[in-house]
Write a structure and sequence with these properties.
6-stranded parallel sheet; 3-stranded mixed sheet
Length: 282
């Protein structure tokens, strides 16, 4: 298939390279000079420039505002012809619905989970909202980028599912940090906890992938702390509108607010451990 791609960053770069490796053609644009070139894709000079003759325009952008600018700004995707937009970004549910209602072509909200490694090898978890016909037409895309793809319902349903994902991940990261600091305080080999608990009720992807990074103090970004804060703020807003009680999420939100307040917005989401680390600041 032929895709336009807007947003060739932490997630977009490995996904673009993966799509090319699978034989798809990609025309890419990024606001940061050099990003699109680094992907190996054909390079466009604007979001509108990725649209000509493509099966879908794919967006992978960091904020609500970035999505709005890429689609509706000067030389945005909406000013060109496109059959369907697939938005991999994590934006507010209401904004995703609003954006979809303003374009004259299809819109699929398809937020993902799995991080850059999964984007690079095609093993993402994708939760999608949109028209069934649009979803089915892009079956080769889902096959090549996702280990698990779920059509959750109409536009906005994928974003609602992603809010739940981020609630679980945000709270889970805080629990992993507390588990690591408790293991170290107990004087046992904290690094062996994931192997020790594997297969039990405490096992999880977070335990096997995030906890070891905390134990090793490896906070090179695979997902930015500022992005987790942005997502948890959206979860908090959605829960308030729906009158859904989420007290545990509120604790995680406070931790990420503190982390970013300390100037640590660009470290990995696992960096929430730094708020607990007794070695921090020495």
């Amino acid at each position: 298939m032929k895709f336009g791609y807007v947003g060739v960053g932490l997630m977009g770069l490995p996904m673009t390279k993966h799509l090319l490796s699978k034989g798809h053609s990609v025309v890419a644009y990024d606001i940061v000079p050099g990003k699109a070139e680094a992907s190996g894709a054909k390079v466009a000079d604007s979001p509108a420039g990725v649209c000509a003759g493509v099966d879908a325009v794919l967006l992978n952008l960091p904020t609500n505002e970035a999505v709005e600018e890429a689609v509706f700004g000067p030389k945005g995707v909406a000013s060109a012809a496109a059959s369907v937009i697939v938005d991999f970004s994590t934006v507010k549910v209401e904004n995703g619905k609003k954006f979809a209602s303003k374009v004259k072509f299809g819109w699929i909200d398809a937020p993902v989970s799995g991080g850059p490694p999964a984007a690079a090898n095609g093993s993402l978890t994708v939760m999608a909202g949109g028209d069934k016909a649009d979803i089915e037409r892009l079956a080769p895309l889902w096959k090549d980028i996702a280990a698990r793809f779920t059509h959750m319902g109409p536009v906005g349903a994928g974003l609602a599912a992603k809010m739940i994902n981020q609630l679980i991940v945000g709270c889970g990261n805080a629990v992993m940090a507390e588990a690591c600091v408790l293991a170290e305080a107990a004087g046992i080999d904290a690094a062996r906890i994931p192997a020790c608990l594997a297969g039990g009720h405490a096992d999880s992807t977070l335990l096997q992938q995030i906890y070891p990074r905390m134990a090793a103090r490896d906070f090179a970004p695979r997902g930015y702390a500022r992005q987790m804060l942005k997502d948890l703020e959206m979860v908090n807003e959605l829960a308030a509108k729906l009158h859904a009680p989420v007290p545990m999420m509120g604790e995680a939100l406070s931790l990420y607010r503190m982390l970013v307040h300390r100037g640590l917005s660009e470290i990995d989401t696992s960096g929430v451990f730094r708020l607990y680390d007794k070695e921090e600041g020495k």
